[in-house]
Structure formats: structure tokens, C-alpha cells
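Re: that chain you flagged

S.,

Sorry for the slow reply, it's been a week of failed gels. I finally had a moment to sit down with the sequence you sent. For the record, here it is as I used it:
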Amino acid sequence: MSSTGLTDWAYPLAESLLAETLPCRWKHSLGVAERARTIAPTLGEEAELLEAAAVLHDIGYAPDLAKTGFHPLDGARYLRDIADADERVVRLVAHHSCAWMEAEARGLRDELEGEFPRESPQLVDALCYCDMNTTPDGSPTNPVDRVNEIAGRYGPDSLIGKFIRRAEPEILASTARTVERLAAAQRQPM
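Prediction finished late last night. Pasting the C-alpha cells below so you have them in one place:
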């Protein structure tokens, strides 16, 4: 599948997997895709790729897809094995928002990285920025509040609570790098 038309393909797929069974997760995914559109100037031809990955990033939570309980891996495997998705979209979904750290905590890091090479750092940063600047209901937020919300929702002693606190410095760094790229792109003459 070429990158042209990726969003036309991605939105209905994500909706079919999330809207009915996980409506809040669907709203979040729509919000993450909206954030992706706001940073499109930093990405040029890769803007549609990021938006497609943004709307699909949490499909691994869908009950029919959840096999390992680790949504980045479950979503990426579905996209690769069933949906015949663009390889770059698959890699972004697999590695979104510091997934390697959670994979490590779950004993799945070798599996994740063995099956799915990481995508370009700029795109990984951009997807993390989009995800961590979106609340569970799809509204804009900031990464500090988002990390606090996640830690609060799961509890500080849970696997997710510990992972998100460990990932917080990298989440903030990814966000800062993306903001810097956006500012630089906005300074470019048209």
C-alpha cells in the first residue's frame, strides 16, 4: 500500500475495531490523529503516514486483537498479519510512546524489537508527541498532565504506573524535539 490514501484506509479500520467496543479509546485515537494534523508542517510527505499511525496506534486494545495484553505488539501484529498494512505504519504502532520500555517490563522487548524495527526517530517522536498531548477523551493536554493521568488511572505500583514514570523523561524529550521541529518549520519561508 502506498502512503497516498493511507488515512482513507486507516480511519475506517480503526473505527471498525474501536468505536463500538471501546468508544473512549476511539475518541482518544481521533484526538491523537488531530494532533498529527497540527504538526504536519514538520513532516512534509510523511504527514499522512503519521496521521494513519496516530489513528491506529491503540487498536491493539480491541478485544479481538488483544492476545499478549501489550497493545503496541498486538496492534502491530494485526496490522502486519491481517490488515496487510504499510510497513512503516506497523513499525510506528509497534513502537509508539516508548513502547520498548513497557515491553521490557513485560518481558517482551526482544519479541517487539525482533519483529518490528524502529521507525525514524523524527516520526517516533512525533507520534509520542501526539499521543502524550491527548487526553483519554481526545481533548488536547500536555505531556506532564497526561503522564500524571496515566499513572493515576493505573496506580503508581502497577506495571503501567511504573513504566510511565520511567518513560516520562523520554516522553518529555520527544515532545520537546517535536516542538522544536515545529517551530523550525514555522520559521521556514513559504
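What I noticed first: The chain has ten helices and no strands.

Talk soon,
D.
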